[in-house]
């Protein structure tokens, strides 16, 4: 009889374990792993290595749960390519090396699941390769191939390479997650007072608590989803239009230069990230329960499953539009009232408590048809461009504080040049997004010290970080202005990233010292700072949304570019200008120095084919709306819950969605709809006040 863990209660094997030899085939043996005996590079390494304690796994538990195998490298010539996310034969070869199992073809692919796949083309590597993280289901492996038993028994954990996971590790989309919480709490409630989801326990009546969510970006959508699933009466208010109409409005802007101030690249269903690259990378913890739940939910609404696996997941505008439509339809099925073209002009405040909002048709610039709607709570998820909302909040004494952000220019190269810089001979495998390897991107950063420069004013920051931001391989430069007299830009890509251009913002951090130097003070000093340079860029372009541009080589030499400029993906026209006249000297010098540094890291980055576009100012919110870290409620007025990027607590699609989700749970708890412990259920949220992208 073949030995299988299913022969023992609770999958526990007797101890001590006997050596297992299949009766029908020779014993499979291989050499033992030898320890590295070479010298440590630094004397301090020995001390550091001693401090790293490897987890001790009881041998009987090795046959339970999941083993996670990381850093499995497959060369490009052997791998099926970037779009293949199943278990290939070359990958099984790498798995067999980890298990020290000599016959890779005997390993059943069904026992392994790819959970991460990324492409590593760093110059420090001998060759470009795909790097995998794979989960191994021990029970399934033993059932399908019992001869692996001896090799599993000898597995030892190595942090970041081989790790044992308990049986209770699981992931759920947000819908199933909330339903599981409700089932759990209902079961607990039957032991005492039955919990009634859909009504607040703090109110004797059966009326559902009413919540207005202002803004339909990632934070607003996920807050709405959580609250509606828990039974709140949710109204989603969006000043912009649904993606169908928004797409037509953006088309009119790009083709006929007709800017709809309430429906554009910034305002409308899905928020500013809808017409962008749709990046799902984040710095708040890719493997955290919160982030996984967000990604699983996006898959539920139509995103490809590859976003759960890709090292640098992205959707692209073409995939985001149908996903958002599915999201909206599901919210409506839950009973959420979705109102597009509805602008919140004011809050209704009584005794320092928000009791409702004053709204009007967003096409009505004069707010002549105001209506007052009352709610039990307001979730404010307005995005980083809702400058009128910031002014309105200040009029009610809501605490807003200045926040550092970054400004700069957007650089565009031919995508083939970036492919060549990053991949060398492998660049031919890109094939406009249809090849084996991903369209090449880059991420660069430099800390610039201008202290020794005598021209730098003592009033402004002497040191600042300069970095690439929102890099869009195979993309295009687009207009993100919300006012005809102001000019700002961003980048976007479709899912295939098949454009012949690559663009990225190159930005420098700015702070209150920079605002003060220009005479801007108060909570909205950063907003005025943005406006100044957006208006200046509009003037330098000559108006009509034409963008001022300069060759990167000319920018470094501080001279005007000639009439013959490189082609640009920006469709509303470009105008040669000296971009040194745009920003303060210290910001310009920081950008100059950083570009020179970036060229050392990416030889060829400085090129006559590279074109700088002005201006990029809305990298993140210039303010932060103060809130309590545990309840997410405003510190100034009760009943107001500021969330997402516009409130200064996120940057990017995923971090904004996570913030909205956590705020939704916190508000549901305040309304008596959720009894659990959010930190235990979802893990600790990102630190309040710290924005991670």
Shape assignment: globular
Biggest sheet: strands side by side, in what order?
A: 14-15-18-13-21-19-20
CATH top level of the largest domain is Alpha Beta
How far the N terminus sits from the C terminus, by CA atoms, comes to: 55 Å
Amount of helix: 25-40%
CATH architectural category of the largest domain: 3-Layer(bba) Sandwich
Largest sheet: 7 strands, mixed
In total, the number of domains comes to: 3
What fraction of residues sit in β-strands? 15-25%
- The overall average pLDDT, rounded, is 88
**CATH level 4 superfamily of the largest domain:** FAD/NAD(P)-binding domain
Low-confidence stretches are 1-52, 192-204, 687-693
Number of helices, where a helix is a run of at least 4 consecutive DSSP H or I residues: 17
**Class per helix and strand makeup:** alpha+beta
Rg, please?
A: 28 Å
CATH topology heading of the largest domain: FAD/NAD(P)-binding domain
Domain FAD-binding: 210-248
Domain FAD-dependent protein C-terminal: 404-619
Protein name: Oxidoreductase
GO molecular function, one term: FAD binding
Explained architecture:
- The chain has 693 residues and is α+β, with helices and mostly antiparallel strands.
- The chain folds into three domains: 5-165, no CATH class; 174-272 and 328-401 and 627-678, FAD/NAD(P)-binding domain; 404-616, no CATH class.
- Helix content is 28%, strand content 20%.
- The protein has 17 helices and 23 strands.
- It has helices spanning 43-51, 89-99, 138-144, 149-153, 174-190, 218-229, 243-256, 289-300, 317-333, 387-395, 415-423, 512-517, 525-541, 552-557, 585-601, 653-670, 678-682; strands spanning 66-75, 112-120, 129-137, 162-165, 210-214, 233-238, 337-340, 342-350, 353-361, 371-374, 377-380, 400-402, 405-414, 445-449, 463-472, 475-479, 489-493, 501-510, 547-551, 574-576, 611-616, 623-625, 640-642.
- The strands form six sheets. Strands 14-15-18-13-21-19-20 form a seven-stranded mixed beta sheet.
- Strand 8 and strand 9 form a beta hairpin.
- Helix 6 packs parallel to helix 16 (653-670) and helix 8 packs across helix 16 (653-670).
- The longest helix has 18 residues, at 653-670.
- It is globular, with a radius of gyration of 28 Å.
- The chain starts with 42 loop residues before the first helix and ends in an 11-residue tail after the last helix.
- Mean pLDDT is 88; it is low at 1-52, 192-204 and 687-693.
